[in-house]
Every structure is written in C-alpha cells, then in structure tokens.
Amino acid sequence: MKSVSKLSLVGILFSVVATGLFIVSPVLAQDDATYEDLLATYGGWTREDVEAAGYEVDLFCVDAASAGAPAELGGMGFHAVNVEYLMDNVAQASKPDIIVLDGEGNVIGVEYEIDSVVENPPTIDGNPLVFTPPHPGVEHEHMSLHVYFVGDEAHRFGTWNPAVTCPPGSTPPAPEDLPETGADLGVDGSQLSLLWLGLGVGLLGAGLLVYRVKLNRSA
C-alpha cells in the first residue's frame, strides 16, 4: 500500500521539476502556409504516410458526444500526434502538431495546439487558435485549431465538424464505464487515484526529459 503512494509522489515531483525546466511560451506561426497548401500537402495522406512522418495514431476516435458536447456538432476523428512538434508549444502552419484521420485511415485534417491559454494566440491562415476545454486525451484547458479537409467551407476551421463521425465502438469509454475502485488491483479508491495521478505526471515528466535529450543531441 505504501509503495503506491511513494510511486505517486516520485511521479509528481519528477513532473513538476521537468515542467519547470522545459516548458516554453507559445509563439506565432512561423510561415505563411494557407488552407490550400495544407490540403495539397496532407489531403491525400493515409495512415501509412502519417506514421512514416513520425506521428503516432491514438486508439480512440473523438466525437462531440464522447466529450460531453451536443452530438450534432459532429466529431474530430482519430488524432495522430507528433510528440516533437506538440512539445515545442509552437503553432507552425507547415508542421501540424496533430494529423486527424477518419475510421478508414484517411487524413481528414490537421490540428495545431498550444498547452496554455493566451490573449493573443497564434493564427493559421488568419484563423486564431481558440480556447478548448478539457476533452478525452487532453484533460486540461488549452488552445487549439482544427483545419478540416472534409465537410462544407463553414467548418474548415474550428473544433468540431458535423461531417466527421466515429466508427461504432471507437470512442473513449464513458466515465461511468471506468472502474470506480481499485479492488481488482488490491488497492482502495484513494490509492488507485494516487496511482493514476503518479503514473500520468510521471509519464509527462519522462516525455519532457526525452524531448530535452533530443534537443541537446541536435544542437
């Protein structure tokens, strides 16, 4: 029982130190790539192209209903993250932090994201990143902008797209479907919470450390 708490504390301390050392401020987009440029570059990509470019495809598809928003807003799709681009906290039009795919593995858009909320956010083709509440996969407030290659022109830039749907069974599990106790793990509820917290922040710290090592090697 005590080892769980110690593990959590180690993870918390490690992530706090790492975050303090490596977080950088968001900056404006560094190029003038337009919507047409992005569509021409990524619009014909498949999952194989995405993975070859260094992106990791998430297991779950995100739609409005799974995030607690009205279902008629549509969805986002499957997110494929480039960790290096995402961790630099820079919105650069020609280097999307995230590429979005449909259930058949076709690219349907790109996404830009910064890990903080700022008064003057970066813009992509004249469209600013917008405040984004927590949703499955990102459990804190941030700023983001999806650029969609599907649907009508009114929904090219934004958070949700009514033309995007998720295959049955592909969305994240609802909160009520998650275990409420740690009985199966041999721990009580409070210790299970500490375990998840320690694991999450520990992984964050480890990711930041790996990113710093990569930067040092490329310097």
What report would you give on this structure?
This protein has 219 residues and is α+β, with helices and mostly antiparallel strands. The chain folds into two domains: 2-20 and 183-218, no CATH class; 31-175, no CATH class. It contains five helices and nine strands; from the N terminus they run αααββαβββββββα. It has helices at residues 2-22, 35-42, 47-52, 83-87, 189-218; strands spanning 56-63, 75-81, 98-101, 107-114, 123-124, 127-128, 130-132, 142-148, 157-158. The strands form two sheets. Strands 1, 2, 3, 4, 7, 8 and 9 form a seven-stranded antiparallel β-sheet that branches. The longest helix has 30 residues, at 189-218. Mean pLDDT is 76; it is low at 1-29, 181-185, 195-199, 201-206 and 208-217.
Draw up the topology in text.
Elements: H1 2-22, H2 35-42, H3 47-52, E1 56-63, E2 75-81, H4 83-87, E3 98-101, E4 107-114, E5 123-124, E6 127-128, E7 130-132, E8 142-148, E9 157-158, H5 189-218
Antiparallel strand pairs: 1-2, 2-3, 3-4, 4-8, 5-6, 7-8, 8-9
